[in-house]
Amino acid sequence: MEIQDYMKGFIDTFYKNKETIQQGKPIDIIPEKTIKQLQTLDFTEEGRDLSSLLATLEETVYPFRNVSEHKRNFAFIPAPVVDISKLGDLLESFYNPNAAGFYSSSGTAVIEEETMSWLCEKAGFDPKKASGIFLSGGSMANLNATIAARDKYLHLDDITKGVVYISDQAHHSVHKALHVIGIPDERIRRVKTDDGLKILPDSLLESIKKDKKSGLIPFIVIATAGTTNAGVIDPLPELADICQKEDLWLHVDGAFGASVLLSTSHKHLLTGIEKADSITWDAHKWLFQSYSCAMLLVKDKTDLLRSFSETPEYLEDASENEHINTWDLGLDLSRPARGVKLWLSLQALGTKKLGDTIDYGIKLAEYTESVVQKTPKLEIITPAQTAIINFRYFNDELSELELNEWNTKLSNLISNAGFAQILTTKLNGKTVLRMCTISPETTQEDIDKTIAHISECIETLEQN
Ligand code: PLP
């Protein structure tokens, strides 16, 4: 068989499997014996038979994954991907453009520029001044943003004085990024949050003033629009005002929540994001794209050019055009044109449909909250916010420590049973069950059945 026959055959196999995906488990972990089996497949000089290798991948590798399109997969930030994005991926792998710059792939450069400009407009940035780059994920976007902020505010000698403000709800990629850019823990301020886990603006201001007084250089506040733990949106307008008055960069990590910008009924939740200097926004989360498709948007493109623009001799000819080359906007040189699949999805589905689907996820979390509220032995810990809700098993005869152990056991039992995937997180010392409900495939019936299943799991645990 020719490789192209395998390719054609694979698409049919994929679509056949897709029909059965919802009947399977939301996650399956590779068994020890399968690991051993795979480890025996050393690389041979002669090569192996392609059809048996493909069968190995189909039967013993890919089944063991977090099935992100499963409608009862509520863990992490699920990735329910639209098929159009996968079609975009196929085009991208077949044509394999090197989207490093305009010269190397001028067609995709135009598509990425147009898409980025539209996203900037949605965020409330002036598209003439703003720009951005498609990256592999939110972690990379956070890193690129912190590099740009450091280079704008800190001269080389100042690096030992730079101070950063985040909350204890910031994603851990922010912490990693700060280490990479040379900011140690001693100069990362975890600003106090209110009962709703939002940064307290007064505490932030106080902390900035104190640091300035002691000769340090506060340079960036990193807020979150849709925290991973609880979907919380920090008070963006207040934080933006402080950053403006005190002259600090405001980065909004909207890896999860920035997609709410496309919703008509909930867009107001992100008011103030337009005042940020930079925004992280993951299309492979709530814009239903396959991995790896995320964006970093900056209000002023010169902020990225300052950090990343370089033209070595061998790229001089390729630089002679009026377009900005993506290699000047980030760390990557060779890169796929990640923005094309998003362009294709936005164009084909229409922006309204995407916005409505985002609203649907938010409403589903609210519905989950109403069901949990009516369910005995469950206690809401954080309400539905940007499609995330946290609750826990509660029994007033148990101590907080015992409750934590109980909820961990409960989550294990739920995940092992294979009906739904629900993992725990920790909020103010409490171990809670966390659900993120962004899949358009999930119905209210799925939510009812999932909460009923949790009640059954509670009964099982109580009997043991
Ligand atoms: N920021 C937030 C708020 C997130 O929720 C995540 C991932 O869940 C990230 C950053 C990291 O994004 P990625 O996994 O695309 O690197």
Using brief descriptors, characterize the structure shown.
464 residues, Aspartate Aminotransferase, domain 2, 7-stranded mixed β-sheet, 11 strands, 44% helix, binds pyridoxal-5'-phosphate
Description:
The chain has helices spanning 3-21, 32-39, 50-61, 83-95, 106-122, 138-153, 172-180, 201-213, 236-246, 283-286, 302-308, 316-319, 339-349, 351-374, 400-417, 444-463, and strands at residues 131-135, 162-167, 188-191, 217-224, 249-254, 278-282, 294-298, 378-385, 388-393, 423-427, 430-436. It is an alpha/beta fold and 464 residues long. The protein folds into two domains: 1-28 and 65-81 and 350-464, Alpha-Beta Complex (Aspartate Aminotransferase, domain 1); 98-349, Type I PLP-dependent aspartate aminotransferase-like (Major domain) (Aspartate Aminotransferase, domain 2, 3-Layer(aba) Sandwich), CATH 3.40.640. The strands form two sheets. The protein has a seven-stranded mixed β-sheet with strand order 1-7-6-5-4-2-3, with helices on both faces. It has a four-stranded antiparallel β-sheet with strand order 8-9-11-10. Helix 5 (106-122) crosses helix 13 (339-349) and helix 8 (201-213) runs parallel beside helix 9. The chain is globular and about 65 Å long. The chain starts with a helix and ends with a helix. The mean pLDDT is 97. The site of pyridoxal-5'-phosphate has 13 residues, from helix 6.
